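Render this sequence as a predicted structure.
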Amino acid sequence: MKFTAEQIAGILEGEIVGNPATEVHKLAKIEEGTEGAITFLANPKYLPYIYSTQASITIVNRTFEPEANITTTLIKVDDAYKAFGMLLEYYNQVKLMKSGIEQPSVISEGATYGENLYLGSFCYIGKNVKIGDNVKIYPNSFVGDNVTIGDNTILFAGSRVYSETVIGQNCVIHSGAIIGSDGFGFAKDDEGVYSKVPQIGNVILEDNVEVGACTTIDRATLGSTLIKKGVKLDNQIQIAHNVVIGENTVIASQTGIAGSTKIGSGCIIGGQVGIVGHLTIGNNVRIQAQSGVTKSHADGDFVQGTPAMPYHDFSKSYVHFRNLPKIVAELEDLKKVTK
């Protein structure tokens, strides 16, 4: 896709200094800009690069005035950083602007879909699926029976959505994510043999949820595993059966949450956190990376460590831990003196 400086200035309500017909077809950092690229200057630290960049177009603040010759065409805006972000969003929307049903693909009996559906090749849509308007389902994706998908939701290539799942509006499911797989439920008999407990619940994703690549969300044993509005999940996260995650909580990669735990709204959970089952985590709780959470936490708690403890207590304890070899040596010396 190519855009001219004039087109971009129109999108950003900017002022052109240079050639309005200059064309770009890619994005770049200002220090790595080459011909055909558009970049931006917002941080004063990068000011020297404006005079050496080979980018064809550079977005700058309106207050910028060059102090030497430049070769790049300028687009002046009120806030260069914000404007470049708007441009990225616009570019992404254009890039994803697809519609139509590619072949081969399968749409089963009773399935319905709204306007502007994009269904990539080698997709399977199960029986009685309901798909809203402007939904995009990329190639090699699977949508099981009785699934509901809301307007403007995107399923990237290789997504797997099991039966009965409900996905809201404006959700994004990245490649390799699995929504609605069986919860890890087994019963052990007197002889030590495990038998599977049927998992007959479902998964509900409310509006504006994003699920990262290769993340797995298990269906409930009974009822629903519930991911509430605005939750953002990173790649490679495991969410077990009957978990509830509150609105606008964000969780980083490789975190595992065991069954029936309830997490509040506005929480921030770092990478590689482990949370045991049947806990209640309050609202606005922060859990530092690599923590092991073994008990419930109240609203606003800030914890770290395994088992997780208040962050400031952990920091103090860690100082002592780092000094442990020195402390042990001093104790050994003291034992020698007292003998």
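Summary. The radius of gyration is 26 Å. The chain has a mean pLDDT of 94.
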